[in-house]
Amino acid sequence: MSLKSLKNQFKTYLLTKKLKKNNILFNLSDFTFSDKNVLIIDEIIPEFNKDSGSRRLTEIIKLLLKNKVSVFLIADLKQYKYKSDYIQKFKDLGVNVYQPSIDQKGQQVTKEDFIKLIAPKIDVAWLHRPTIFSKFQSLVKTANPNIKLVFDMVDFHYVRLLREYELNKDEALKAEAEKFLKIELENCKNADVVIAISTTDKELLKQHFNTDEKVVLISNIHQHIDKSDNFNSFENRNDLLFVGSFRHDPNSDAVKYLKENIMPLVWKDIPDLKVNIIGSYITEDIEALASDKFKLLGFVDDLNAVINTTKLFVAPLRFGAGIKGKIGQSLEHSLPLVTTNVGAEGFDFGEQTNVMIANNAEAIAQKVIDLYTNKILWEEASNSCKTILEPFSLKVTENQVLQII
After folding, report:
1. Are the C-beta atoms of 125 and 150 separated by less than 8 Å?
2. What is the pTM of this model?
3. What local confidence, expressed as pLDDT, does residue 216 receive?
């Protein structure tokens, strides 16, 4: 047995000992089943205030609960690492959340054991992200062959990785992209329903998997916030804002590109303009970009307060796939933005395309300068946000989710 296996065995032993000491017993009657029951598995317990994918999944969970569907949530964490500040938040919503426990014989009830125990009553397994579907679909289907398997792509990983490869020609990324294409296509074949997050992802998937009747579109959920007397005017706002978790490579690249290629051009025209970068899991290479005019704020609990005093959102994404939650978040608050074709995928900017979208450093810088300094341009862009967001309303998404369930 390897040293790693021995360590894992010891950690499992310590966890079992702790569960016994604290009398954490498994009881199936502690979980609530309804006429319709959905199992959701993700890599983590969704951190809904930290990343777009988690925020979207949380809104889907809320829609299911609203429609009297029981939700069972599992994170693909190691048993001895199965901790999250978000577990209680989901329990408070009424979600059945798996946590390690022991049975009457003193044995651990693992994630896999839990799936087998609840599977007879589960109608739909919503497997979130490619690796999760690949890992759990066989176990779920074996436990109950009648379960409807849903593969939620989140984004088309192959496309995102291939675009990153095309940007920097790292052969390892090309190999990773090809690996994910195989996983994603195998998942599509085994799934009963495939969820694409944007029209672009759906069309790109069709080039590789042409079973269109299987693929449905469920995008991010965004509700536009109507402007009120408290809405800050052009004159009462300052600074640029970027939001994104640094667990996601496109965000790291965008922030470096912003600091090194775009802002030097903007600062020639607006020397004192400050940029605020908000995002969890900041890495050392991102920390190195910090300056008086380029502030790294890390994770911010009340993002709305920052958005409502910011004059312009900027998201110079050079690669990625799917719908970008940060774009929708800016539009929710009627905050004008500058992004790229990649950032704008899935949204119809209409007449504002020429105002808010550009694809090289010079053009992005110029659009930032124009929107930041021109009140009429800014107000027109702000007023267009509600129309752009209409396809992402709760009502549209709710209908799509319920059709699957």
Report:
1. yes
2. 0.85
3. 94
- For the residues 334-342, what does the mean pLDDT come to? 97
Q: Which long-range contacts (CB under 8 A, 24 or more apart) does 130-135 make?
A: 130/154, 130/157, 130/180, 130/183, 130/184, 130/187, 131/43, 131/183, 132/41, 132/42, 132/43, 132/76, 133/187, 133/190, 133/191, 134/183, 134/186, 134/187, 135/76
How many residues are listed for the chain in this entry? 405
Contact indicator for 287, 259 with CB cutoff of 8 Å:
no
Phi, psi for residue 278 in degrees, rounded to 5: -115, 130
* Contact indicator for 47, 54 with CB cutoff of 8 Å: yes
Q: What is the Cβ-side half-sphere exposure of residue 295, based on CA atoms within 13 angstroms?
A: 13
Q: Which two tokens stand for residue 100?
A: 């390690």
- Is there a contact between 217 and 400 (Cβ–Cβ < 8 Å)? yes
pLDDT of residue 201: 92
Taking alpha carbons only, the member of 204, 202, 201 closest to residue 213 is 202
In this predicted structure, what is the pLDDT of residue 304? 87
Dist. CA 150–CA 78, nearest whole Å: 23
89 burial level (CB within 10 Å; 0-12, 13-18, 19+): middle
Q: Could you give the percent of the chain with pLDDT greater than 70?
A: 100
Which letter does DSSP use for residue 258 in this model?
I
Distance (Å, whole) CA 395 – CA 59: 12
**12 vs 121: CA distance, rounded Å:** 29
Distance (Å, whole) CA 343 – CA 251: 11
Mean pLDDT score of the chain: 93
- Would you say 354 and 293 are in contact if contact means Cβ atoms under 8 Å apart? no
Asked if 367 and 270 touch (Cβ cutoff 8 Å), the reply is no
Give the three-state DSSP class for 291. Answer: strand
The three-class DSSP label of residue 257 is helix
> For 233-250, how does the pLDDT look when each residue is reduced to its tens digit (9 = 90+)?
999 999 999 999 898 899
Single out the residue of 393, 405, 404 nearest to residue 215, CA to CA: 404
- One-letter amino acid at 257 equals Y
Q: Which run of H or of E encompasses 175?
A: helix 171-190
